Amino acid sequence: MAAAVMAAVVVLAAVAAAATVATPAEVRWEVSYLTLEPLGRAQKVIAINNQFPGPLLNVTTNQNVRVNVQNNLDEPLLITWDGIQMRMNSWQDGVSGTNCPIPPGWNWTYQFQLKDQIGSFFYFPSLGLQRAAGGYGPITVNNRATVPVPFGQPDGDITLFIGDWYTNSHIELRNMLDDGKDLGVPDAILINGRGPYRYDTALVPDDLQYETVGVEPGKTYRFRVHNVGISTSLNFRIQNHNMLLVEAEGTYTNQQNYTNLDIHVGQSCSFLVTMDQNASTDYYIVASPRFVSNPQWSQVTGVALLQYSNSKGKASGPLPDAPNDYYDKYYSINQAKSIRMNTSAGAARQNPQGSFHYGSINITHTFVLMNEVPLRINGNRRRTINRISYSPPETPLRLADLHNLSGVYTTDFPAMPSDMPAKIASSALNASYKGFLEIIFQNNDTDVQTYHLDGYSFFVVGMDYGLWTPDRRNDYNRWDAISRCTTQVFPGGWTAVLVSLDNVGLWNLRAEKLDNWYRGQEVYVKVADPLGYNITEMIMPDNVLYCGLLKDRQKPQIHESNSKSSAQAEAGWSNRLLATVMLVVAAVIFS
């Protein structure tokens, strides 16, 4: 009993320390439509505080965050936090399996901690193709002062959002998918929400607003680049400048220079770029499509300007070369394999990233998840994983579990491919807490896929073309594989990842391509705590929203003043944290 009590004290101290490491970051976001002309014609975009892209959430490792979101749209809204792991707290993940949406005219406060994370991430609206209209913005998680960054302090920090864009609204795009149509070639590639610089008078209209990045000669800047598009892999490059890759989705990388890098949908990277070229002229910043065959794609390229402070003229001439072949799959896969973890650098903690010897841990379970070309199910064109096309139930899975509701979803999602008839279902994959999971993504389609797992980062240990077989484990990188939350899977190929299941909850595993995600290419991974829900996990937040089978529990929302809401939110956060601590202590003492 004495040992148990001592263990409980240690747990109590650790959790209490986590709650007090930094002053909470508190922001209020008004999400609304804004009429802009990114391509020369008026269209509604989703803006946050009248900004498109949205405002920066600039925080530090272990800091607590409260984001009050006011939904001024005409449809329900959820914000999800791509790459933020929500430790012990899937209640804040902002996807349909964990949260009821924020109704139009309502607000809701997200409360979470940036536990043991650093790096470059982004947020976006997760429902109904809304990201195709904007609503996204950057998250920067800085190192604590006690943990050194493995490179010198940059002279500036620059965020670039790249992504394909349509002049059709997200509602029109949604209707196209519902009608069984493809979205087709996008109208442009935007950079920070702006159209291309007029590098070609025949392709780019006059008077478009384009992005200009101002820099000083001789200085070094950190560029954080996020592909927030709908479905297009992009090659990113800066004319005549080397890009030193230093971080990818929260992991410091082996530092190596690239003249260009493929960044797939949902992925984030950061580079150091030194302004060491002739400063008398501007330079092109380019994001161009990859893995496309339609000749119309050559007319869709994002172009911004890098402008030295003493520049005398605009950039001119041809754009910097992309990889030789637009469909050079070997170039891209070899480039992807070259991105490795910096094993000697600390990140969220002082101990080196390589001190977790993932390559020596025994695999406890394997999921082989296969996608294929679109399938016709019940007359509808759908996307599948292992021939299951996910359909979100009206009641979030996490709430259904808490209230012991049956029939909302099943846990019989197949862990291996089969030739069973394709079907639409609401089902989840069961996974064991504290297990060590191997996931094989098998892409039997003709397009690049990207997959993202909420709640975790995973080690990308292998990728290749062809069909994965168990003997391919002999080729895994078991020492310095990059740890990230979003990975590409090349057409007709596979990607293998390893993940330590140390975060209880229900976690969304999805295709980051919005059209595929909308059509059902997703599943939830259920990592249940053997001690019971709300023991290791944070308890349900006081402000939880109800919907579906639980809609009668929802009370009308009373809009409080900002100061009162903030005080109530702080009290609620403290109460939930204290309750979680007490439950953990009780579990340790009486186990």
UniProtKB/TrEMBL annotation:
Question: Could you tell me which InterPro entries the record lists for this protein?
Answer: Cu-oxidase-like_N, Cu-oxidase_2nd, Cu-oxidase_C, Cu-oxidase_fam, Cupredoxin, CuRO_1_AAO-like
Top-level taxon: Eukaryota
Q: Which positions fall inside the Plastocyanin-like domain? A: 31-145, 157-311, 395-528
Q: Which CDD domains match?
A: CuRO_1_AAO_like_1 (cd13846)
What are the UniProt keywords, alphabetically? Signal
Does the keyword Secreted feature in the UniProt annotation?
no
One of this protein's Pfam families, by short name? Answer: Cu-oxidase_2
Is Signal set as a keyword in this record? yes
The region annotated as signal peptide is 1-18
The record's PANTHER family line, in alphabetical order, gives: MULTI-COPPER OXIDASE, OS08G0154250 PROTEIN
Q: Which family does it belong to?
A: Belongs to the multicopper oxidase family.
Q: What is this protein called?
A: Monocopper oxidase-like protein SKU5
Taxonomic lineage from the root: Eukaryota, Viridiplantae, Streptophyta, Embryophyta, Tracheophyta
